[in-house]
Amino acid sequence: MKITKPTLLLDLQKCKNNILRMVDKADKNNLIFRPHFKTHQSLQIGEIFKEFGIDKITVSSVEMAQYFADSGWNDITIAFPFNPLEITEIENLAGKNNLNILISSKDSAEKLMQITHKELNYFIEIDTGYHRSGILAEDILQIEKTITLLKKQHNFIGFLTHSGHTYQANSTDEILTIHQKTIEKMSILKNKFSLEFPELIMSIGDTPSCTLAKDFGNVDEIRPGNFVFFDLMQYNLGVCKFEEIAVCVACPVVDINLERNEVVIYGGGVHLSKEFIMQNGEKNFGQVVKLNETGWQKHAEISYIKALSQEHGIIKASNQLINEISIGDVVGIIPVHSCMIANLMKAYKTLNNISIDHL
Asked: How far apart are CA 309 and CA 293, in angstroms?
């Protein structure tokens, strides 16, 4: 495979293995599996899910919903707060597909009632501690008012949450503690409203919880996305093994500074994003791996990207890497956040040199 510029490599077998493990977990726990496709954003990767019998998906935008609907996916949840400026597109999609939208406040519900007379399916987004968007789980009054406001015209599906604060956890035990607290808060709501809405769905969605948890209580649906590839952040959290990470960015080496033990690569913020984890008190924007014919492998001594500008990446290199590398070589970078990388790179190259596009 000839690499001349930053290229997102995909180990398709690892990807399939990751999907199969989550499919098995959902089956064993009698859960609806509605994977979040914002991570891979690819019709071809979506076909792998179909091979395992998956027919419901989550997306993060109306545009993404349309992209997958055009390819035959017809049971779609847009897990992003309802945007009234896209009501025409939403109504058109809902007229052709089983589409669920997300209402994140009573004000959002009021806006929906003002601008549409068509029946829509909706989840109420619940904030169980992440504090990004949604109604606080404890705010029963606002939840009741939201349901009352919408129930004459729209179809209430259930409660949906994303425990994104698991990504800031310091241990797997803390992730599982957040997971249990999320279930407890959501269960209170389900028990309170299930008499009026006996088929309401309780939906959770973060990869750390869905990967590590064994107990899902009375959760009905899971919506993880990042698990399809995993990344350095998930590995650092203890969520996955290094060998389960399915993507790597191949970057050309353009300069070497022996005095500073630094390597300059063609691979900057526009390719790798600027998300980071902390490594020995410094920011780590991606870990260096050695590329080979079958994929990539860890170096015995860790090297990582310490700084990024638009096109440049600066690697803090181990002595091992400095002694092995030359200008014109290509190194692999395990991304900190695979969702961001995939969105930036727009295409994949499999290990057997097949190109896969996405939205």
From this structure: 30
- Give domain 12-229's CATH number out of 2.170.190.11, 3.30.750.24, 3.20.20.10, 2.60.40.1190: 3.20.20.10
CATH topology assigned to domain 242-357: Lyase, Ornithine Decarboxylase; Chain A, domain 1 (2.40.37)
> What phi and psi values does residue 215 have, to the nearest 5 degrees?
-115, 120
Q: Please give the angle made by the CA atoms of 70, 10 and 50, to the nearest 5 degrees.
A: 40
Q: Which two tokens stand for residue 315?
A: 């690697």
**Residue-by-residue pLDDT tens, the chain, 359 positions:** 889 999 999 999 999 999 999 999 999 999 999 999 999 999 999 999 999 999 999 999 999 999 999 999 999 999 999 999 999 999 999 999 999 999 999 999 999 999 998 999 999 999 999 999 999 999 999 999 999 999 989 999 999 999 999 999 999 999 999 999 999 999 999 999 999 999 999 999 999 999 999 999 999 999 999 999 999 999 999 999 999 999 999 999 999 999 999 999 999 999 999 999 987 889 999 999 999 989 999 999 999 999 999 999 999 999 999 999 999 999 999 999 999 999 999 899 999 999 998 88
The encoded tokens of residue 68 equal 């997958």
pTM over 0.85: yes
